[in-house]
TrEMBL record:
Gene3D superfamilies: P-loop containing nucleotide triphosphate hydrolases. Keywords: Cell cycle, Cell division, GTP-binding, Magnesium, Metal-binding, Nucleotide-binding, Septation. This is Probable GTP-binding protein EngB. Necessary for normal cell division and for the maintenance of normal septation. GO terms for biological process: division septum assembly. The lineage of its organism: Bacteria, Pseudomonadati, Pseudomonadota, Betaproteobacteria, Neisseriales.
Amino acid sequence: MNLFQNAKFYTTVNHLKDLPATRAEIAFVGRSNAGKSSAINTLTNHTRLAYVSKTPGRTQHINFFELANGAFMVDLPGYGYAQVPEAIRTHWVRLLGDYLQHRAQLIGLVMIMDIRHPLKALDVQMLDFFALTGRPVHILLSKADKLSKNDQIKSLSTVKQALKPFTERQQVSVQLFSSLKKQGMAEVETVVAGWFAD
Ligand code: GDP
């Protein structure tokens, strides 16, 4: 089954209390500008399902898309946007943490990290929040096309090494991804489909 292609927009919410009732969800998170919207658009074969280059920071939306198997893909607000006041940033990190830790039907997390700036402090914080659930995380090293093939492989291996301490407590996998080149699409699909099969 093609899980992501033809995903349909379902709803947008601005508060955790308004989250819809769903059977199963997979969430996409990442630092602002990591390439999350592009990745969602590429995976779902839409050009504007998730907005690319929004003005981040003020209203933070959580977008829900329905997948082919009736589960939902949840596009969480990007974190770490520098221009946003500290208080708002902290507020959102807390809300995201709340969702990641307590959303019972969340079966796995896809984290987007720019291949040139992986595993920043807030990324690690998100991993820590999610570790408590015991659910799997799959990391996309995005914008892989910005590096040579050689450097992509080096970066993948460095990140895998850095993730070693995490893999002792949590199922964490990582792959190369490029929305521009549509690189790594089948791999994401296989990993996420595996979560549903578990
Ligand atoms: P978001 O804030 O995480 O949703 O990031 P966006 O998807 O809006 O992407 C941020 C910037 O990175 C935009 O200028 C995109 O065009 C660019 N970008 C995203 N994905 C890729 C990619 O695979 N390759 C390249 N070269 N640029 C990308």
